[in-house]
Amino acid sequence: MTDPVHEIILHNYPQSPVAEKVRVAFGIKGLAWRSVEIPRLAPKPMLTKLTGGYRRTPVMQIGADIYCDTQCILRTLEQRHPQPTFFPTDDAGLMWCLSRWTDGAFFDLAVKIVLGSAGDALPQDFAQDRGRLYLGQDWAEGLRSANKEIPHLAAQIRAPLSWANRQLGDGRGFLLGDAPASIDAQLFHLVWFLRGRWDQGPAFLSQFTHLVRWEAAVAALGHGTMTGMTAQEAIARAAACEPVTVSRTDPRDPQGLKSGMRVTVSPDLDGGEQPVAGEIIVADCDTVSVRRHEPEVGEICVHFPRAGYRVDIED
Q: CA-CA distance, 8 to 172, in Å (whole number)?
């Protein structure tokens, strides 16, 4: 039985493509984990009690350490559970670089296609929430533009999917060879999203025969072993634990971040989201972690990737 202090808890919901990336990662490593289902739309009071304001999906919790963004989640899983590895070749650096594209421009294309193709059928509250999150303040115009440009957007996403299809053309099981890697999870969640949420997705994807074979192989990996957990139980778990993160900072940090500095952390884009405030525990090229105190819970350490996140020093 898993030690509760080290038990993996994923705050997610079934329809989330980004959570699907992590669920596939659990399958690659064959991990046992607990699932807390969170609302699809804000407010998410039980989640933000742990994160300090971060509301994106998914969030991973291990005790009183909270991991935001899949970049941070995958890195932590690899550190804590190194075998089987997410990096079966010597190309870990290139895979992290590629993940900035799959999570950035490639994901943005998929979102525009899915939201734009839904048009007026998209519930208004969902359209406003996701539009603001991914398309900025002028989200309504962004959705109208996406709806008109579906053929162009499909052409843009067709190119990288064809590249992946060619990569798989030699019969390999996964993108890097016979063993699955993090990049398989990072690409799979986009294909899963297009197939399941775009009405033209299955027909569009059928042209990529090698990719379809690969998609089935990744799906067959499963999601590890999941059991449910309530949000109240997850909060009680955090309250019963202490963060285990050891303080470390980099003397070459471009912002001069030091342990104990008061900062706010937020995604490095205008999504209208609440920054997370706390004291620096970790600041290096990969990670920024802050300690915060939550009434009725106690000390919590919230972790973010450095790439893609903005850190502002409080006056």
A: 31
CA distances from 277 to 128, 172, 246, 262, 314 (A): 26, 46, 19, 7, 9
In percent, the amount of the chain with pLDDT more than 70 equals 99
Residue 57 lies in domain: 4-84+226-313
Residue 108, token pair as written in the block: 């943005």
Angle between helices 182-197 and 209-220 (to 10 degrees): 110
CB neighbours of 120 closer than 8 A, spacing ≥ 6? none
pLDDT the model gives residue 314: 95
**Selection from 110, 89, 90 nearest residue 174 by Cα:** 89
Stated as kind and residue range, the H or E segment containing 199 is none
Who has greater pLDDT, 129 or 75?
Answer: 75
Task: With CA atoms as reference, report the closest residue to 44 among 33, 34, 57, 55.
Answer: 55
Predicted local distance difference test score (pLDDT) of residue 2:
60
Percent of the chain with pLDDT over 90: 87
Same structural domain for residues 80 and 109? no
What's the rounded mean pLDDT across residues 192-211?
98
Handedness of CA 6, 302, 105, 146 (dihedral sign): positive
Coil, helix or strand at residue 121? helix
Two tokens, residue 158: 């067709």
Give the end of a domain, one of 193, 220, 247.
220
Residues, the chain: 315
Ordered DSSP codes for 123-162: -HHHHHHHHHHHH-TTHHHHHHHHHHTHHHHHHHHHHHHH
With 60 as the cut, is the pLDDT of residue 1 above it? no
Q: Which amino acid is at 210?
A: H
Classify residue 83 as exposed, middle or buried by CB count within 10 Å of its CB (0-12, 13-18, 19+): exposed
**CATH code assigned at 131:** 1.20.1050.10
